[in-house]
Here is the input.
Amino acid sequence: MSLIKEFTKGFIKENPVFVMALGLCPTLAVTTSVENAIGMGLAATFVLVFSNIFISLIKNFIPPKIRIPCYIVIIASFVTIVDMVMHAYVPALHKNLGLFIPLIVVNCIILGRAEAFAGKNKLIPSIFDGFGMGFGFTLALIVIGGIREILGVGQFLGFNILPKCYIECPMLIAILAPGAFIVMGLLMGLMNLKKKK
Amino acid sequence: MEFIGKIFALAIAAIFVQNFVLMRFLGLCPYIGVSKKLDSAVGMGMAVIFVMTMASTFTWLIQTYLLIPLKIEFLQTIAFILTIASLVQLVEMVIQKTAPALYKALGVFLPLITTNCAVLGVAILNINENLNFLGAILNGLFAGLGFTLVLVLMAGIRERLDKAEIPVSMKGMPIAMVMAGLMALAFLGFAGLKF
Amino acid sequence: MKYFLKLGFVLFVITAIASGILAYVNSITSPIIEDNQKKVQEEARKEVLPAATKFIPDSVVVEKVEVKDPLKKVSSDTNNLFRYFRCFDENDDLVGYTFEASLYGYSSEVKTMVGVSPNFTVEKIKTISQSETPGLGANCMKEDVQKRFFNKKKDEMVVDKDGGTIKSITGATITTRTIANSIKNSLEILEKNISEIPAEVPEKDTREEIAK
Here is the structure.
């Protein structure tokens, strides 16, 4: 029962992006299209789940004084694995995400979960926590990416959604830098509104 | 003369045209977190400039004299982040001993500089853009200046915003984001500026 | 003292194991990455000069014309070599040349594969690598944009904003201009040097060796 709760809390109640405001850098940078958003979300989820697993397994062997550097090495290793595998098997996505793949290592979500959860809990809850937070992150990315892609180019996942007259003259600012901040701000305001209710 | 020109061009690029916060989306977490008060913004900015410059220096040296000769470039992420973490630890200890007041003021934000995407970001960018030692150091310095500039501007605006009438759900983070968007819009005007 | 040694040891062991695993993954993915890059170039070459079936690599030494940037690394000697391919069809007739034109655009290096006819008219191009602004400069990958560069000679390789005939991408003049300039620069090098090189197909065995 409580395991399912560990999984779903990352979706809305403790959504890492909208509620805890973690992992903002990649969120704004890669959400220029839904495809990039899903790619980044899955990559981050992979790193999150596996680092949670390993940290939860060896947490009793790590002296508390150096736990942060140890967590960082473990997280960085999985980030490097994801980087290399993506470069080999999905080179186009790798190019689009660019700098932000190695930057997953400083994604506050991952280090945050390692410190707050995996370092103190058993293996199975840590896995659920990792997946939950990862999917919450991916969901947030898809929502923002969807809004920006629809407004910015009139497409969703590359498919034309809006009528041709919009695609010829879209609201380009949505996929540029300012649009990212403004969409994010308005969405956060919306979440606050929901919370008040 | 050409030399000064190139340095100036790098500065304009790092601070304005490709501002690390507003254009490259690096360094956002502390940007939103610390930009509430002007003094903490300035203090944080100074610390970040220092760490970014030092980090650029050491990571460039490690890349050139350790990773490339031994052909272990794939260890770049681990090597860089460990270097940055150690650097921040060192800076923390030094500030604690020499300027305890500043240490207290910065509080928990000092160790958080480790997870600042801008620091790791500029280290990796220096390598990707093929800069030499001097270029890397300067790029780190200018990127830090750009970050501080935007941070201070934001803090100034937010101090005023606190006194304005804003719908309750937009107070705090949401309105800060929208503000950042408008600032990014302004900085977009620098696009294409080249020397 | 012993405590610090223990700390250092634990960190060292974790890092060592991590490095070992990464070295292993790297050995698997590295060759695949290299292969991918070669494939992209091969396919691009065939696309920009569809009549050609044989591609012979060659290179000419070029004087460095660019001003040395005091902040960038001194580039390795390969930058003094202009690499291109001589292309022949099944009858061993010269169909043209292909080369990769590259120049730094707005926010990234823009690499374009160019196919030219024997009289140095650009037949087709294909942008193979860029990281320009999505929605603006990145539109240079679209077919209708690339078509604007087809069938042009060196002197026609100018964007409309500079007085030429090539229509710039709306809001992305820099990227369009970068592609045009990169092609123009490479064409200049090619025209200057190609007259010194025979346009014949080399002997059968050497050709196979080079093509490897």
Summary: The two ends of chain B are 13 Å apart (CA to CA). The longest helix of chain B spans residues 38-67. The interface with chain A takes residues 22-29, 32, 74-78, 81-82, 85, 114-117, 120-121, 124-125, 128, 167-170, 173-182, 184-185, 187-188 of chain B (CB under 8 Å).
